């Protein structure tokens, strides 16, 4: 879980220069985006990214365990 949070944080930081042009956001969200940046990725895309890297970690763990038996 720690790795997933790190990946999502990195993704948000890397896309910090995104704009809200063409998006409908609340005034509070627009202010927050202007202050700290925002990401153009949807929640579904971020969840897919997290699932992908989580599955890579599971596969690596399984491979590591196979060699220790």
From TrEMBL:
Keywords: Signal
Residues of the signal peptide: 1-20
KW Signal (keyword) present: yes
The protein's name in its UniProt record: Lipoprotein
Species assigned in the record: Acidovorax facilis
């Amino acid at each position: 879980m720690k790795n997933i949070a790190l990946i999502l944080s990195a993704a948000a930081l890397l896309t910090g220069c995104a704009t809200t042009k063409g998006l409908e956001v609340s005034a509070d969200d627009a202010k927050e985006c202007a202050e700290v940046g925002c990401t153009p990725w949807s929640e579904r895309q971020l969840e897919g990214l997290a699932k992908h890297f989580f599955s890579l970690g599971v596969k690596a763990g399984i491979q590591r365990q196979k060699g220790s038996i």
